[in-house]
Amino acid sequence: MPETNLILTLAKVIIAAAWADGEVTHDEVNNLKDLLFHLQDLTARDWAELDIYLDAPIDTSERNRLVAELQAAINSPEDKALALRALQEMIGADGEVTEEEQAIAQEIEAAIGAVDVSIFSQMGRLMLGPLRRRQQKVNEPHNREIYMEDFVKNRIYFQIRRRLDLGEAEFDLPQEDLRKLSLAGGLMARVAHVDREVTESEFSAMVEALQRDWSLSHEQAAFVTEIALSEFGVELDPYRLNREFFTSTSEQERVRFMDALFAVAKADGEISHYETEEIRLISHGLKLTHHQFIQAKLRAKE
Fold first, then answer.
1. The 3-state secondary structure of 84-97, one letter per residue
2. 103 alpha-carbon distance from chain centroid
3. The pLDDT of residue 238
4. Mean pLDDT across the stretch 230-246?
5. Which CATH architecture best describes the domain 149-301?
6. What is the pLDDT confidence band of residue 78, given thresholds at 50, 70 and 90?
7. Residue 212, exposed/middle/buried by CB under 10 A (0-12, 13-18, 19+)?
8. Which end of the chain is more exposed for a tag (fewer CB within 10 A), N or C?
9. Mean pLDDT along residues 98-103
10. Does 229 score more than 70 pLDDT?
11. How many Cα atoms are found within 13 Å in the side-chain-facing hemisphere of 84?
């Protein structure tokens, strides 16, 4: 709906304002979410999309794009009133609006109707007060929507793709293989995290497995491993990891992958009952037979 799109675009501009100094702390993220929650008509899908903007800094070109989109979304006096009303409801969520904030809100109203990115600097000033009050009460390439499906479905691939775009590493791999690689990293991270502590030997085992099975350099394998471990538990759906890895691999690849999982489990000296059970669940999710699981277990013990 047009109104929903307007509010969603406004929320993105507000988040861009919060990134003004290049950093948003964990507490600030939670406070910002609390304030944005007061914006009406945002769907669950909208919230997932906003998470992308909260995930990493927003640079100048992207901020300008978001402001332009907000301006383009305002097509009538009614739209303008709706945007300002939503803004007023959000900044007044705690029952207090200072004179300075009110003055800034009025400046924003004037800027919205013009192609003038000064709206962003005003929005940043406006958000300082509400975020500060919320904190006191609580004592958390430039159009990233193109990665929306990956952000929701495969957070590890999303982070790999984003950091590759930033030039942090180079991979001469087709996108399909890169997605499969990220899924493998996520499944190995499940095993490494079974005891809630990842040891250096487990990290090294993941790196070695990725080097061996995907012909990566040590630096590339370490890059993927670091992302997989850091993203583990951040809305990673184990069923989806299993399903997508299953659909993107052959049975032979999945059988061979069992050896990589047991190598991670064995890295700290022994394979615990809990690690074995986790691998069994992964094996079942990848539709391997119990015999194939047992054979991989026996190979690991040899």
1. HHHHHHHHCCCCCC
2. 35
3. 75
4. 74
5. Orthogonal Bundle (1.10)
6. confident
7. middle
8. C
9. 69
10. yes
11. 19
How is the chain split into domains, by residue range?
Answer: 2-138, 149-301
Task: Check if the beta carbon of residue 261 is closer than 8 Å to that of residue 281.
Answer: no
Helix (H, G, I), strand (E, B) or coil at 130: helix
User: What's the rounded Cα separation, in Å, for the pair 302 and 115?
Assistant: 69
pTM: 0.54
Quote the percentage of the chain above a pLDDT of 90.
22
Cβ-contact 39, 3 below 8 angstroms: no
Q: Give the N- to C-terminal CA distance of the chain in Å, as an integer.
A: 61
Residues 266, 274, 160, CA angle at the centre, nearest 5°?
65
CA distance 105 to 112: 10
Which of 32-36, 113-117, 298-302 shows the lowest per-residue confidence on average (mean pLDDT)? Answer: 113-117
Going through the chain in order, the beta strands assigned E by DSSP cover none
Q: How many Å apart are CA 5 and CA 279, to the nearest integer?
A: 43
* Rg of the chain (C-alpha set): 23
Cβ atoms of 23 and 57 within 8 Å: the answer is: yes
